[in-house]
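I'll show a sample.
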Amino acid sequence: MKFSNKWLKSYRFLACALITLLFMAHTAHWLHIPTLQRMENILYDLRLRTTVVNTVDPRIVIIDIDEESLAKEGRWPWRRDKLAYLVDVLFDYYNVKLLGFDVVFSEPDTSAGVELLEKLASGPLQKDADFLSTLETMRPQLSYDDMFAKSLENRPVVLGYFTSHITEKTPEVGLLPPPVAAADEHPFSPLLFKEKSYAANLPKLQTAALSGGFFNNPNVDEDGVYRRLPLLINYNHQVYEALSLALFRTLLGKPEVKFITGEGYGNSNIDSHLEGLEIESFHIPVDQSGTLLVPYRGRQGSFPYVSATDVLNGVTDVEKLKDKIVIVGTSAAGLLDLRVTPVQNVYAGVEVHANILSGLLDQTIKSRPGYILAVELAELLSICLLAIFIFPRLPVFLSAIIFSVLLISEIAFNFYCWAIWNIDTVLASPITLLALLYGIQLFFGFFFESRKKKQMGNMFGQYIPPELVEQMSQSDEEFSLKGESREMTVLFSDVRGFTTISEGMEPQELCELINDILTPVTRVIHESKGTIDKYIGDAIMAFWGAPMHNPQHAAYAVRAGLAILQALTTIQKDFKAKGWPEIDIGIGINTGKMSVGNMGSQFRIAYTVMGDAVNLGSRLEGLTKQYGVRMIVSESTLLAAPEFTYRELDKVRVKGKHKPITIYEPLGVTEGISHEQLQMLDLLNQGLHGYRQQQWAAAQTIFEQLAERYPQDKLYPIYLERIAYYLESPPEIDWDGAFTHTRK
């Protein structure tokens, strides 16, 4: 960001626009901002708790398998003959209108011991006629599953089952009820929750029942709260309904479900999107995933609860259950059907389904119409325009009043839509955006301008030496954190074999070792007016030419590289005294056009450089090992820093590049180069010339002389090896003398 008064209005506009775009992207579900979503959930729960009716709906009664029932009737699961008796009592004695089970019967009831008796009949007692006759007579009374299935026949009973978004070891247990529709016939079905396995009821039970629905919730919010629940899921190319929807349709005589869809918004890959369900004269608003907002009436107890043991023993008054919709579920903690909801932290899962059924009957489901997104985006844009064009023109006191009025109006309008129109609109996004943009106006108007120098130090101090920060503060030059393209020089420094070194050291000792390496190297870079870009483990990345323009950036970088190698001698002595392994360093330097500025994400941002020239600098550092040198620079750096003497190493193509470049090793400032070094350079240049002209014999002779004179130098054996290869396999006719490196 540029620190100049004439840019203040532009920055204020850009800041407001950027934040608004982020909020709009979050509202449109193109970007997820977790904190904002948590705030939205909190405000949703607040609105819900504030507006719940807190009355008891007598139409729906919950038969509760509570702690009392478990104590009197025995632990769960109960025998199916007892459940059959429960169903018979509910329909024949209490005359209930509809019965639903928020439990699943996926395993056969073997408590009667029929299997054991049949083993005896086919084994030791197979010739006992009396035993076989008695067994055949008693069999119907001992088949509890058959008794339960018979009690369900020809009665309005809806069984529950659950699905899973993961593939279980046994992916299909029991029998699913008939689907609502074929998924392939409806373009919106890919947006429904796609389940991969299920545990349903025994086939004989599901076949006997009138309907069935899933009771699990594949759309629990990130904080584990049950705010919404899908009415439809997609399993195996079929659309299945939730328990609450199955109860609702069974109550109405199982009418057909009509799907209301919208066109031309959201995911462009989907032709149409689900907006609602039409069942006879009832309209059910859902989102594109088939999910509806649970219409909680209040805390647990919004529906009459009757203990299951009281029903079994005929204690309950007939009038409490006559012509009622009954759902069998549990509130016992040990049966694990307790949920976290916006109205209560511990809430019986069965009552969630009762709330949905009640809301379907009363048509009190909150909705998010297809047009509401456009309204919300327009709302956020309006707040942005107000912040940009109205707040800056107002005195502080008046702007505070306008801000307060807007904030209260926004909250009031949101509650009005919720309570009167049954429309759910976002609240956290507009009020947070309003507060942020108002804060930005205050920041730019009363704080930022007067704190320019201090902000500059805070922003650049972590990258560059304090002396440079002070120089920038005193300069009239405008400095920018915004991305721009500049001619700069980048340096990469890395410790060789660090992985091997680190494997044999304790963490605390390794941390001390890294600090002892990076501290003197960083000091050298700062003294050379370089900017530390980042530390990458044992490596350092630095650059010259930003944030302050420096026409000698290449010379400063090369000088820093040579100084690092000098500091390495001291580092090695210190390490030897501490008994640490000896280290070596590789340095790569390149000069060229680079993009520099604050780059990153909404979570972390840094002042850094990017571009091909930066990548090449990293590649050059990687080549130092292969050529047995400690520092390599590119030809562009050589041209920008001619006051140094360089040894030409090679003409190469690095990985990811097709155009060859010439690489060099800096030997030092030209004035300090010895006569012997100059002779070596002259001889090397002759050898390179012969090599590239494919004069193999002449080049080989020269490199052999150099290798003999400098046996520790790894460069000359490299060329001797290449020449030997080319003598056997000559290069292509159009060979340009470049060597291609396939590794970074």
